[in-house]
Every structure is written in structure tokens, then in C-alpha cells.
Design brief:
With 110 residues, the chain is α+β, with helices and mostly antiparallel strands. It is 56% helix and 15% strand.
């Protein structure tokens, strides 16, 4: 059975990145791999989408970047959630749950 990959709705990638970084700081490839694994390989975040999103989040002050060494002994930029980003994540999760509940109601209506 082949798993079909889905495109993310606008703004969803930022939410997934913030959620991933809530656990621990990660480098870009680690973020995309975590999203892929947790989504059971349905969501694949490409570099062309990931890095612009990381830069947007950094400009907003929701994440901070610092250089470190990866598990493969390579220099990598690690991203961490800031307190402002943690508050944004909480707000976004609440809004996402309200939205998906409302959409579910419409889809289930007879």
C-alpha cells in the first residue's frame, strides 16, 4: 500500500515547526524528519518550504537559531522555541482545534 503525501494548507507548516521545536531544539533536517515520522510519512516538508518558514518564524521572534554540531559531526544551525514562540504555539493549537472541530461539524452534517 502506497502512502499518499498531502500538501499543507497555508500557515500549517509554521504550526508543525513550532510543535516540533516544543520538544527540543533541532536543525532543519531534523525538523523535517520529525514531521515526516510523526505524520506516519504522509507529510514531507521540502527544503524550499522549510527554510523560508524557519526564517519567517525567526523574524517574528518565535524561534531562535544557534550553530552547533549535528549527530553526524557536521556544523548545523539549530532552532529553538522562544517564550514568545511557546505562547504562539499554544494560541495556534487552540485555534487549529477549534477550526478542525467546526469543519468536522460541517462535514458530518446531514
Amino acid at each position: 500500500m502506497t502512502t499518499e503525501r498531502l500538501d499543507l494548507p497555508q500557515g500549517t507548516l509554521e504550526l508543525l515547526i513550532l510543535k516540533t521545536l516544543a520538544l527540543e531544539p533541532r536543525h532543519g533536517w531534523g525538523i523535517s524528519e520529525r514531521i515526516r515520522q510523526v505524520s506516519r510519512e504522509v507529510l514531507e516538508v521540502r527544503q524550499g518550504s522549510l527554510y523560508p518558514a524557519l526564517h519567517r518564524l525567526e523574524r517574528r521572534g518565535w524561534i531562535a537559531a544557534s550553530w552547533g554540531t549535528s549527530e553526524h559531526n557536521r556544523r548545523a544551525k539549530y532552532y529553538a522555541l522562544t517564550p514568545k514562540g511557546r505562547r504562539q504555539l499554544e494560541s495556534d493549537v487552540e485555534a487549529w482545534r477549534a477550526l478542525t472541530t467546526a469543519v468536522g461539524h460541517v462535514l458530518d452534517a446531514g
